[in-house]
């Protein structure tokens, strides 16, 4: 199939139907009427705004999350906005199907209505970037900017979003570090179409700075501060937010996710296929076969999944995996890779190592022999010798990786995620074995198929 045929086929699946559009329009109308009515009842000066992909008509078929922002006047004190905003959200949600309080920069209400998730978020009624007080305020400006500039390219955005989801590079959450929906919209508006964004994957990376709002001419100093700050952080892209020169829209985009996009874009242009948009499930395989093929070893730390949302749990698992890598390399093991995540109610950290046993002793370098510290080293160690000016000693160590990890944890010598530290200390530590529910995760990790790059 050529690219045009693939795109045509994909669009039939991702473009909302007329029925779906009618459902969404009715839903939004009902919610807006409810908002206006509740605002009047509570005697508040608040304007409701729809933001996000529904308001921009860049949503994918079947993806109907509603973002309804409740905008307070700029003179409202922040504490009052939080208090009254939550009160308003709850009063609205009482008339919907169900709700819960969620937390971001400030509390908001996450409700369900007619099978759809509805976020009711208090914010300030901003007209310019100079008015922005909280992280969510820009969303109103983002929606306005996209609607003013998209000029009928809505389906092109849908294609790019679905492509990014299919290659597992979508989502700006800290545990994903992929492309946000807003970034996808900006790229399509800037470069013209889904295919042109793919064709320019290399150019975009080399160009580095994208400035769709022309801030480098209009607000040079502010925009350059953003560029310098983000360049120092070594971001793959710097996309100056067209509504706020202080912000890089691609700040959360990591090199790994851009790398996946880079290669998948090239591959799609060479061999177009619907599989990029709707990938097959990863094939099952045997992790023990992978260990035999490579001659490496697997260590699994498995423990009960904490009751934390992904935004909190996954970054802490990642921090802990990195901590184990550093600690084990200090102990003389080579770490070829690590992975983390959860399956069902089991959270895990996996490490691929060169070995699971080491020598009974390690050589411990000491200070110069004629110093105070040298004398102290001499007295404290049993087998000591001099090489040049320095003292050396043998140090008895744990041999087996399970014992090594247990000792490291006992002595607090691994940098672990704060909220899961105690759970990791109670984890099962398994060498060259994965529990049944983690066998597929172990295979995908060891075979590198999890990253689905090639």
Entry summary:
The protein is an alpha+beta fold. The chain is built from 18 helices and 14 strands.
3D architecture notes:
- Mg(2+) binds at residues 65, 67, 119.
- This protein is an alpha+beta fold and 454 residues long.
- The chain folds into 4 domains: 16-143, Beta Polymerase, domain 2, CATH 3.30.460; 150-276, CCA tRNA nucleotidyltransferase, domain 2 (Poly(a)-polymerase, middle domain), CATH 1.10.1410.30; 287-358 and 398-451, Poly(A) polymerase predicted RNA binding domain (Alpha-Beta Plaits), CATH 3.30.70; 361-396, Alpha-Beta Plaits.
- The protein contains 18 helices and 14 strands.
- It has helices at residues 3-14, 18-42, 52-56, 78-93, 138-149, 154-166, 181-191, 194-199, 201-207, 215-218, 220-232, 255-270, 287-294, 310-330, 372-380, 401-410, 421-425, 439-447, and strands spanning 47-51, 66-72, 98-103, 107-113, 116-124, 209-210, 238-239, 297-304, 335-343, 346-353, 361-368, 384-387, 390-396, 428-431.
- The strands form 4 sheets. A 5-stranded mixed sheet has the order 1-2-5-4-3, sandwiched between helices.
- Helix 13 packs parallel to helix 18.
- The longest helix has 25 residues, at 18-42.
- The protein is globular, with a radius of gyration of 27 Å.
- The mean pLDDT is 95.
Distance between the termini: 20 Å
Shape: globular
How large a portion of the residues is in β-strands, by DSSP E? 15-25%
Task: Summarize the biggest pleated sheet.
Answer: 5 strands, mixed
Helix fraction, binned, reads: 40-55%
Mean pLDDT: 95
Could you state the CATH homologous superfamily of the largest domain?
Answer: Beta Polymerase, domain 2
Q: Which stretches of 5+ consecutive residues score pLDDT under 50?
A: none
Helix/strand structural class: alpha+beta
Q: What is the CATH level 1 assignment of the largest domain? A: Alpha Beta
Q: What is the count of β-strands?
A: 14
CATH architecture of the largest domain: 2-Layer Sandwich
Keywords: ATP-binding, Magnesium, Metal-binding, Nucleotide-binding, Nucleotidyltransferase, RNA repair, RNA-binding, Transferase, tRNA processing
EC number: 2.7.7.72
Domain Polymerase nucleotidyl transferase: 37-142
Protein name: CCA-adding enzyme
């Amino acid at each position: 199939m050529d690219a045009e045929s693939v795109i045509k086929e994909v669009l039939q699946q991702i473009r909302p139907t007329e029925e779906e559009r009618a459902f969404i329009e009715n839903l939004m109308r009902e919610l807006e009427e409810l908002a206006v009515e509740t605002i009047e009842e509570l005697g508040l000066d608040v304007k409701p705004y729809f933001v996000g992909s529904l308001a921009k008509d860049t949503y994918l078929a079947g993806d109907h999350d509603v973002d309804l922002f409740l905008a307070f006047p700029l003179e409202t004190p922040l504490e009052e906005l939080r208090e009254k905003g939550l009160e308003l959200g709850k009063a609205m949600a009482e008339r919907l199907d169900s709700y819960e309080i969620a937390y971001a920069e400030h509390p908001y209400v996450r409700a369900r209505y007619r099978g759809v998730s509805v976020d009711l978020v208090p914010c300030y009624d901003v007209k310019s970037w100079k008015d922005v007080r909280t992280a969510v305020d820009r969303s109103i400006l983002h929606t306005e900017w996209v609607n003013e500039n998209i000029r009928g390219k809505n389906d092109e955005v849908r294609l790019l979003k679905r492509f990014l989801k299919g290659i597992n590079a979508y989502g700006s959450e800290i545990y994903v570090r992929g492309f946000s929906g807003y970034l996808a919209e900006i790229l399509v508006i800037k470069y013209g179409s889904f295919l042109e964004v793919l064709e320019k994957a290399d150019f975009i990376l080399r160009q580095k700075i994208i400035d769709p709002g022309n801030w480098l001419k209009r607000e040079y100093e502010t925009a350059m501060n953003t560029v310098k700050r983000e360049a120092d952080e070594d971001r793959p892209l710097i996309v100056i937010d067209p509504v706020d020169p202080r912000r890089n829209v691609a700040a959360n985009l990591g090199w790994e996710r851009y790398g996946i996009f880079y290669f998948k874009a090239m591959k799609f242009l060479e061999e177009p296929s619907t599989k990029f948009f709707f990938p097959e499930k990863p094939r099952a395989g045997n992790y023990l076969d992978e260990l035999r093929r490579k001659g490496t070893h697997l260590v699994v730390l498995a423990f009960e999944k904490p009751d934390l949302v992904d935004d909190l749990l996954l970054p802490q698992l990642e921090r802990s995996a990195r901590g184990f890598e550093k600690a084990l390399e200090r102990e003389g093991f080579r770490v070829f890779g690590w992975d983390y995540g959860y399956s069902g109610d089991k959270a895990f950290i996996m490490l691929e190592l060169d070995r699971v046993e080491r020598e009974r002793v390690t050589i411990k370098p000491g200070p110069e022999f004629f110093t105070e510290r040298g004398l102290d080293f001499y007295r404290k160690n049993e087998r000591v010798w001099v090489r040049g000016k320095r003292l050396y000693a043998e140090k008895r160590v744990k041999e087996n990786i399970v014992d090594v990890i247990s000792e490291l944890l006992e002595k607090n010598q691994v940098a672990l995620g704060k909220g899961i530290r105690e759970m990791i200390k109670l984890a099962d530590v398994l060498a060259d074995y994965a529990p049944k529910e983690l066998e597929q995760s172990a295979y995908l990790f060891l075979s590198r198929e999890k990253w689905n790059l090639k």
